Amino acid sequence: MDDAVETLGALALGIYPPVLEEHGLAAALGAQARLGTVAVVLDTAGSDRLPIDLEAAVYFVCLEALQNAAKYANASRVQVRLRKEGGTLSFEVGDDGDGFVQSANGGGTGLAGMRDRLAVFGGVVEIDSAPGRGTTVRGSVPLRVEVSA
């Protein structure tokens, strides 16, 4: 409980969670998976340390997707996958929840925030969802890119 309160406090202040800063993206997502109410399966093979600002951007996008699955999707299971291949970090957060009609959602501020976080690094985020088949958030970020201001 103390860890959860510390993490929530840090997130409210926009601070990186200590586990992210100390151990990296895979460990931080693992810690969040253990705190959540939905079963999370992690597949983080080959995702070693990256610059902290890039790890934080991907972490917060994945965290938003995990929180959406828990709060809105009525999901019972979420799979998180990280891959570093060919100069790109890619990720996928997929749930088995209710899904939604994307055109009716209007994009929302959460999706805009996800896109903005990765756009700074030249990255992209895509949402794949439909009623009855869950939601998948996919993203990728080039690993050798200058950060735009």
Q: What attributes characterize this protein structure?
A:
149 residues; alpha+beta; Heat Shock Protein 90; five-stranded mixed sheet; 24% strand
Strand residue percentage = 15-25%
User: End-to-end distance, in Å?
Assistant: 37 Å
Overall average residue pLDDT: 86
Decide which structural class fits the backbone: alpha+beta
Count of DSSP helices?
6
Largest sheet, order of strands side by side?
Answer: 1-2-3-5-4
| CATH level-3 fold name | Heat Shock Protein 90
Fourth CATH level, the homologous superfamily: Histidine kinase-like ATPase, C-terminal domain
Assign a percent range to the helix content. Answer: 40-55%
Largest sheet: 5 strands, mixed
Shape: globular
User: Which H/E pattern describes the elements?
Assistant: HHHEHEEHHEE
The whole-angstrom Rg is 15 Å
Count up the domains.
1
Number of strands: 5
Low-pLDDT segments: none
Under the CATH scheme, which architecture would be assigned?
2-Layer Sandwich
What is the compact description of this entry?
By secondary structure, the chain is an alpha+beta fold. The chain is built from 6 helices and 5 strands. It has one domain: Heat Shock Protein 90, CATH 3.30.565.
Describe the structure.
The protein is of the alpha+beta class and 149 residues long. It has one domain: 2-Layer Sandwich (Heat Shock Protein 90), CATH 3.30.565.10. Helices cover 43% and strands 24% of the residues. The protein has six helices and five strands, in the order αααβαββααββ. It has helices spanning 2-12, 18-23, 25-35, 52-71, 102-105, 108-119, and strands spanning 39-43, 77-85, 88-95, 124-129, 135-142. The protein has a five-stranded mixed β-sheet with strand order 1-2-3-5-4. A hairpin with a 2-residue loop joins β2 (77-85) and β3 (88-95). It starts with a helix and ends in a 7-residue tail after the last strand.
